[in-house]
Amino acid sequence: MENVILEVKNLSKTYSGITVLNEVSFDLRAGEVHALVGENGAGKSTMIKIIAGVEKPDEGGEIYINGSRATRLTAAKSIQMGVTVIYQDISLFPNLTVAENISIEKNKSMIVNRSEMKRIAQEALDTMGVKLDLDAKLGDISIGKQQLVAIARAITFKSKVIVMDEPTAALSSAEVDMLYNIIRAVKAQGIGIIYISHKLDEIFTVADRISILRDGKMVACDDASAFDNQKLINLMVGRELRFIPMRNEEEASDETIFEVRNMTCEPFFRNVSFQLKKHEILGLTGLVGAGRSELAHAIFGLMKPHSGEIFIHGEKVVVKSPEDAILKGIGYLPEDRRKQGLFHGHSMTCNISAVTLSKHLNRIKLISRKKELKTASDYINKLSIRPNLPSINVENMSGGNQQKALFSRWLETGPKVLIVDEPTCGIDVGAKLEIHKLLRQLAKNGVAVILISSDLPEILAISDRILVMCKGTVVDETVAGEATQEGVLEKGLMGSGREIG
Amino acid sequence: MTKLNKIANNNELTLTFFALLLFIGFSFASPYFFRLGNLMQVTAQLVELGLMTLAMSASIISGGMDLSIGAMTSLCTVLLATFMGSMEMPMGTAILMTLAISMLCGMLNGFLCGYLKINSMLATLGTQALFTGLGLVISKGVTIQCLNERFFFFGQGRIGGQLPFQTVILIVTAVFSIILISKSKWGRHVYLIGSSSKVAQFAGINYEWNIMLVYVFSAIMSFICAIVITSRISGGRADVADPLVLQSVSAAVFGGISITGGAGNITGAIIGVIVFTLVSNGMNMMGASQFLQQIIIGSILLLVLMLRQIAKKRQ
Fold it and tell me: Span B23-49, mean pLDDT?
């Protein structure tokens, strides 16, 4: 094992009781491209954040950069030790020129020396074999070129390790080819690259070795030639089915209770149509960024679609705002519990009643604490929310219970349509099961339930029909019994299914 | 121990205790402090800062800050004095017209902050200059006299020869505001928006309209404050309420209202006003200079902020 420039041993990370990285070991050799793959939530980002010094690992893990042990890693220390991470939202200075961005760290003297800056920048670009206008403002050039600037900067930092997180997400195909060339040039300098991507064809083009993370564990690591498409997908998904399938036991109904026709909202999604029959749960999946959440936002009135119609129980509805959507019976449990769902610093009671305050007023139109408390207690019993303490600050509740409180918020509105976006993300298996039961119960009671999830076993276990989205279009619609994880994943990754709608 | 912690964590209780301590301290330190006449004077001195703090608190709880309340109040004093003075309007008409104009000012703030979503500090910094400018133009930069005898009652009248009428105004307004902000649907929405405007948006809370109401509320409080001031000084001036703006921020923060929005309550802010007023009056009675008072008030504010930060870190 000569030339190992980054080594990680037994790295674990737990967020409030939930293990997202479990004793992961990983190494990177000089001059190689090591691809890191896995489903959403497999732990890739967490691992990178730890290496970059942004997150602290649990006790017991070890990180070696260039042979020396890195303890108490901070972001600054990580960069200093030679690790550069190029994030998806490239973190450069849009108001500075290309040359300034590349040489910013190098310029240690008090006086800005323009010709020296340009020389440093040019040198880095030469190593990569790229030509760029050094005086162009960074904000004025394409994302693809900005990415090149980020790589050039990593070279001037004398980085030994460059991490690229979905580097091609915003690139045109010509730019992708250019990136491949640069990666080769960078490798030749003896720099190791950790390459994160969802796109399998890309991985087989650039990677020397591939490591696969699944549910926070490293499940395989081998030379790229040892894998093929199918094997990779199997390894990414291949866990035992953790969920008990819960399908519609009611008689199949022909009654369409919710329908979306030809909805388009550029640049997020286009021409999306689907129907939801009574007692059905519709699963909506695809990669992050495929347009799933945006579709939900458009239905809920957070975003104005360019075209398209919505029908609830056969009646056409026009949604002007979230407030309006709630009045018309649409609920949306958002994807990001922390930033979009919870009112931090407020009690569970207050979080539950936030949307339905009008139902909790007394005779003189003031908020009735008694009514609020009654609602909260009802849901605490019904959904067995723990702790049984309506006044608890939501920040002090576990993820699963926070999510149940948010469910209570929406159940209290008595929705006709409930869109739940990644409802079981980051919560434990027990709570997941309870939420699945709840969704099934809602569907049974005639609520149109749309489940958005990246968790394929979840989608397969509880939805009756599955829509797969890829790059803003619905690429596949299958009946749950016929779908397989591999099939759904393949369509979501490649967008190779038939176009419908 | 836990009980002690609970008491220490109850912000209003701690502050009330602090105010009481000051009260007792000054009663012993100065022979002039604990007299009915002076105590009534203290309640009268509370009023203007109290009303300004009500105006300021609502905007801070909503996650913003209305810096234009001082200018708005001053403009209203100029308008009241002009309407009743040189224009010789009846008192009722003058009051209603001023109220209408102050509400328009508030709606302008609400439009900028709520509908256009301009950062509230910047927007109200702009309107503050605008309102001050309008006041200066109308008053030509001088104090405008207003000698309507009936109007003097608002800021100079005493009920039963003792209780200042302005104190009654503050009590009624404060109780009304406390109920409105802590118990009404609008008040709750203001807290939730202040806690996170993004989460509020996902919960279908109408940001634009609720924020509009916040700034109209601030404007109405400023208007009431203007009535008291105009009556007290028998006139209006375009910069008369300016010093109250930052004092009201201090009082609100001292009283436990979170500067980042969404937390704290009006009762605490009012206790903050009481503490500040006690310090200033008590030190006057002891013959201490105005300059020294500033130092003491600044120190008390810093002390409370430090203690709170330390308590937060301990948790």
Answer: 88
Q: B304 lies in a domain?
A: yes
Contact between chains at B203 and A345 (C-beta distance less than 8 A): no
Mean pLDDT of A321-326: 94
In a domain, B186, yes or no: yes
Whole-angstrom distance, CA of residue A42 vs CA of residue A61: 18
User: Tell me, what's the pLDDT at A497?
Assistant: 40
CB B47 within 8 A of CB B276: no
Q: Domain span at residue B137?
A: 12-314
Put simply, the answer to whether A409 touches B203 (Cβ < 8 Å) is yes
On whether residue B3 sits in a domain, the answer given is no
Q: What is the sign of the dihedral through the CA atoms of A380, A382, A385 and A386?
A: positive
Indicate the number of domains in chain B. Answer: 1
A321 with B188: Cβ contact below 8 A: no
Give the rounded percent of residues in chain A with a pLDDT score beyond 90.
32
* C-beta atoms of B202 and A350 within 8 A: no
Kindly state whether residue B46 falls inside one of the protein's structural domains.
yes
Instruction: Specify the range with the lowest mean pLDDT, choosing from A238-242, B214-218, B255-259, B284-288.
Output: A238-242
> Which residues on A lie below 8 Å from B191 (Cβ)?
346
Q: Which residue has the higher pLDDT, A271 or A176?
A: A271
Q: What is the CATH number of the domain that holds B51?
A: 1.10.3470
Burial of B167 (0-12, 13-18, 19+ CB in 10 A): buried
Question: In chain A, which residues have their Cβ closer than 8 Å to the Cβ of B179?
Answer: 366
From B19, B64, B10, select the one nearest B249 (Cα to Cα). B64
On chain B, the residues whose CB falls within 8 A of the CB of A332 are 202
Residue A380 confidence (pLDDT) above 60: yes
Give the pTM: 0.76
Other beta carbons within 10 angstroms of residue A498's beta carbon come to 8
Q: What angle do CA A299, B207, A311 make, to 5 degrees?
A: 20
Q: Greater confidence, B110 or A179?
A: B110
Task: Please say whether the beta carbons of B221 and B241 come within 8 A.
Answer: no
